[in-house]
Design a protein that fits this description.
By secondary structure, the chain is of the alpha/beta class. The protein has 13 helices and eight strands.
């Protein structure tokens, strides 16, 4: 069954206006996004991992944990549409079916799936790997079949830019659109020319990810709208400001220096929630040819 929020997102996509979706990760970030008049929100997997579980964004949070957080956030947002990160779908196509059903029941308006190898990692960290395009098309087919209505949109993200190059990423984006994805998303273009090429060569509604300190230049909303992008997500803005406020308060309380704790990029931020320790565990237990560290 469709919802008012899903209908609203489809209506927004039918206009030429760029949809600005701040990254939300808990109840208060969702409530504040709604109360400040934003028309959509994006549930950031990195933000949920860090804020909800004290973990870096390297595939450690489970489908059930993410779906429960989506339910909380969608409930707080009400009629404001939620685009929700679901990583790789958390397994084979049958696992993807269960993931989509859980997100669907949680009330999200769009579910984002990506073509990384599991365990995935933040799109703005190095050394990513992707599955072959045909494998991801199976993920897409499962997702499209599992949704309860066509108003629940499916966002197909490709991380192929880093390991395979921009040409391959554009080819995949168009392939995923032909396979039925409602919105496509090439992660981490690295300069303004790449942002423009994606806009001109991908034949589908486009989402762009603007991460503070990430690999993609922070183009203006006006320029992105001029290029024809449909959605711009800002997954790190609220989380970065909240983290800065907490660090500042904590350092004031015990008289310590704030500067050593301030992250300059996503990798620095993830070190605040244990990235170095998890990398060491990976080196300890994973085969050398399988390690992402």
């Amino acid at each position: 069954m469709t919802t008012a929020a899903r209908k609203r997102l489809k209506d927004l996509l039918s206009t030429d206006d760029l949809i600005i979706a701040p990254g939300v990760f808990d109840g208060i970030s969702a409530q504040l996004t709604k109360r400040t008049g934003h028309v959509a929100a994006y549930m950031t997997g990195a933000g949920v991992a860090a804020s909800g579980f004290g973990l870096p964004d390297i595939g450690l949070v489970t489908a059930a944990e993410m779906a429960e957080r989506a339910r909380v956030i969608a409930g707080a947002l009400g009629d404001v549409p939620l685009i929700a990160d679901a990583d790789t779908g958390y397994g084979a196509p049958i696992n993807v079916v269960r993931t989509v059903r859980a997100y669907d029941a949680a009330g999200v308006s769009a579910i984002q799936l990506e073509d990384q190898v599991f365990p995935k990692r933040c799109g703005h960290l190095p050394d990513k790997q992707v599955v072959d395009a045909a494998t991801f098309e199976q993920t897409l087919a499962a997702a499209l079949d599992a949704r309860s209505d066509d108003d629940l949109l499916v966002v197909a993200r490709t991380d192929a830019r880093a390991p395979l190059g921009l040409d391959a990423a554009i080819e995949r984006a168009n392939r995923y659109a032909r396979a039925g994805a409602d919105i496509v998303f090439i992660e981490a273009p690295q300069d303004a020319d790449e942002i423009e090429r994606i806009a001109s060569e991908v034949d589908a509604p486009l989402l762009i990810n603007l991460v503070l300190g990430g690999m993609t230049p922070l183009d203006s909303a006006a320029r992105l709208q001029e290029l024809g992008y449909a959605i711009a997500i800002y997954p790190s803005n609220l989380l970065a400001q909240a983290s800065f406020g907490m660090l500042q308060s904590l350092c004031e309380l015990n008289g310590t220096d704030l500067a050593p704790h301030l992250p300059a990029n996503p990798a620095d931020f993830f070190n605040l929630v244990g990235m170095a320790e998890w990398r060491e565990l990976d080196r300890k237990f994973a085969r050398k040819d399988a390690s992402w560290a």
